Amino acid sequence: MAENSVNLNIFNAPAGSLRGALSLFAGDPELALPLARLDAGTATLFTLRPDQAGGQPCLRAFASAAPEPPLLRKPASGAALLLFHASAERFFLSAGDAALQAGRRDVSLLAGAMKAGTPGPDAERRAAELFNAGELHAAHYLYSAAAARNPASRARFGLGPVLAELGLLQEAYDLLKTETDPEALVCLAGIHRRAGNPAAARQLLASVGPGAFAERKAIEEAWLDLDEGREEDAERAFRKLSSSAFDKTEPLAGLGSALARIAFRTRDTGRLSEAAAALRSALLAPSYASARIFLQLGSIHFRAGDAAQAEACYRSAAALSPSTQALANLAVTLARAGRHQEAAAAALQVALIDPGAAQRLLPEFPPASLPGLFPAPPAASPAPAQQPQQAQPP
What we know:
The chain is an alpha+beta fold. The protein has helices at about 75-85, 105-115, 125-130, 135-150, 155-165, 170-175, 180-195, 200-205, 215-225, 230-245, 250-265, 270-280, 290-305, 305-320, 325-335, 340-355, 355-360, 370-375, and strands at about 30-40, 45-50, 50-55, 55-60, 70-75, 90-95, 100. It is about 55% helix and about 10% strand. Residues about 1-10 and about 380-394 have low confidence and may be disordered.
């Protein structure tokens, strides 16, 4: 990060933005995140303290001049990940004398910069490698740097799928919406599918002719079949693609999803076992999809009553992407296995980023255990009164 200052202009960012001040976070400094106490019956939770800026809700973090406790202190890389998964869209980060505005895309860039370091001339190649290894924030940062350095490069086409996988669908759409390249059209179709607009996705895919992206087009069409309830059609398509596609991760993930849906509907244990096997095959090597595949596999194990395997999958998902869903699923799994202390630790992590979800977890615990598992901090003891000095005898 030490040389980032010479590369700041690659983001063409306005003054006062996080993207324009990444050098302030060189060395991964510690940030202080203000917390708010939330009393939920007999349980006490802490969440990132909501604030206001310009009449709009936001969250704040401080590299210096920290506010009053309670506070959570984390390295900037970890704080950025926490903010990224929080139930907020606007952030203000105070670093030195600067008050930096940021959105979720910006805090992803900060997390990625901490991981990837200074972009070099091979930033686009490194971004592709990191994306395929599941390092989404680092890939986001390097693809952004490469695309800003050379807008005529194809880095923007690599960046679109990264943004979509991160859940930054509007940002991915805005990046590619005017493109007519087949690679961009397939990505835009996937964005529309994830956003719940299958008709727009089908229309875009129909404009992609045979050629280099026919395989990715077929994968998107199979996902649409699954989303639209044609589970058997999706199963057949994904099964064929899982044996013929060059990259088998997405076809195997789709096959596992299709088989699981059919199995749960028909109570077909054989298909359920096959679904789990397909998802395990998709996880043989790290990939951009590993976090969501671990979540899917964990849900299969959970519904099948295999708590140990479900826990392992949810822990892996949370390690890759500490989202509300991964952490909450882990908390429920642990609580139902009677491991209440560990479940409470996961629930407390959920509370930081999504207090509503954390409160919905509390019925998973025995009511009598809540004060002990989620205790209020001890009240500060008042300072002892100063005793008057006694006169000394002459």
